[in-house]
Amino acid sequence: MAQASQATIGDSEFDRDTAVTRRADGVYDIDLSAGWTIINAVNGGYLLAVLGRALADHLPHPDPFTVSAHYLTASQPGPAVVRTQTVRTGRTLSTGQASLFQLDEQGNEVERIRVLASYGDLDALPDDVRTTAQPPAIPSIDQCFGPDDAPAPVPGSSAIADRLMLKLDPATLGWALGAPSGKGEMRAWFGLKDGRDADPFSLLLAVDALPPTAFELGLSGWVPTVELTVHVRCRPAPGPLRVAITTRNLAGGFLEEDAEVWDSSDRLVAQSRQLARARL
Amino acid sequence: MAQASQATIGDSEFDRDTAVTRRADGVYDIDLSAGWTIINAVNGGYLLAVLGRALADHLPHPDPFTVSAHYLTASQPGPAVVRTQTVRTGRTLSTGQASLFQLDEQGNEVERIRVLASYGDLDALPDDVRTTAQPPAIPSIDQCFGPDDAPAPVPGSSAIADRLMLKLDPATLGWALGAPSGKGEMRAWFGLKDGRDADPFSLLLAVDALPPTAFELGLSGWVPTVELTVHVRCRPAPGPLRVAITTRNLAGGFLEEDAEVWDSSDRLVAQSRQLARARL
């Protein structure tokens, strides 16, 4: 795991792989990296970070405050176009829309994801913190387990595993040992493996980077996201993040996943909820 | 409270006040009712139901599964136009977009709300229920309190109060007595006063109809919604609903409100989360 030199925000693989190139007003090109795939699917949080960066360029405010994404079709590694639109600009917040498109085999443009988002300036917020939520109870990093610790590859791990520092709480690892807990919980330490610290865009990745809580509920199939909304509440402090995901309502073939992301200074920096389909 | 005859789904004030008239493909007219205002603001859940009904007409699937709304400017009672667009249609789900517009004093069209939503057919879902969440602990309706029970009008009550059966858990009513609990919780029995049972569209109202949790946190000002996402998970059974709202992260001038809606058969029928601004 030791790195020759630690990557930094703005100069890291994550930054390069989410960088969009402005072709025209509201039109951005990107080559979706195969480095952020799980099995063959491009990670939904990585895609959200790509859309988030395009909107950050397009809107007058720099930071995503709330981003709502509806996932339409499965993205593939390779060229994609992001189209952005300003919905409203205000003093404190601006709202935008973005869509990611790829070409299908017949050369037709297919929409992959559509996003509505409101942006602001995290650094302009007042300092008051009256959070009643508690950081997740999770053992120290060296007592948690990642793909590197498994005798064989952890089921579901993929290219993205090489880029993440992901250490799962053993209490939520039963699924990997064939003994799911039956509780809809997943907890982990999270970072980028090259040592790049977290920023609002990597928080968009963090909320969708853990194994599905459905695994601990005894489901083993794919759990595609229908909709994912992320609130970024604070610029994260340097150091590893703790991510806790909870599912309370698996019913009718769908489930919600609620994520909380805590930074090294015990600040709740992001909250997300997604609606996903459970293949029973 | 006694009604000469009970209203029904499809024949009630809520149905009439949320009914949109199709002017052309993807264009709907509505006269926003002053009956669903809080102080002078049109309730955000009522507006969501209006947008939800327009999308239900426009999309091939009937029921909102997940609706993400970004609130842009304050709506006024009176004429409005809803424009809808199909984003994608699939076998199980279809995704659409809708915006609500009104004219400003200069006659310019101003966008009030923009919504992305995925629709499906609740009646086509399998019967499996593996919900671990528990219904809220709330006293019986006759032990809870509504605007009718107050010696003077409850602060914040308005025209909408005449149309709702809203009975608040006394444990979350401290704010109305000048002694907020400091906990970000609000719980209530909820229904429509004319006895109309709940359906997916009135669930969109239910998640945004209680007093703000911020009141119990000791804030007294307006708490405007930035973004609200609702998941409708089941067609609600007849009878009153229980709504529990929780805030865990009041910080930096913003807070989240998480709502759960339970029906009379103890089914968790809707979940929502909103990001709101706290005027400190």
Automatic annotation (TrEMBL), chains A, B:
Q: Name the Pfam families for this protein.
A: 4HBT_3, 4HBT_3C
Record Gene3D superfamilies: Acyl-CoA thioesterase, double hotdog domain
Q: Which InterPro entries match?
A: ACOT8-like_C, Acyl-CoA_hotdog, HotDog_dom_sf, Sec_Metab_Biosynth-Assoc, TesB_ACOT8-like_N
* Domain named Acyl-CoA thioesterase-like C-terminal: residues: 154-276
Q: Where is the Acyl-CoA thioesterase-like N-terminal HotDog domain?
A: 33-119
For this protein, the record's SUPFAM superfamilies field holds: Thioesterase/thiol ester dehydrase-isomerase (SSF54637)
Q: What PANTHER family does the entry give?
A: CHROMOSOME 23, WHOLE GENOME SHOTGUN SEQUENCE (PTHR38110), THIOESTERASE DOMAIN-CONTAINING PROTEIN (PTHR38110:SF1)
Q: What is this protein called?
A: TesB-like acyl-CoA thioesterase 3
Which species expresses this protein natively?
Streptomyces glaucescens
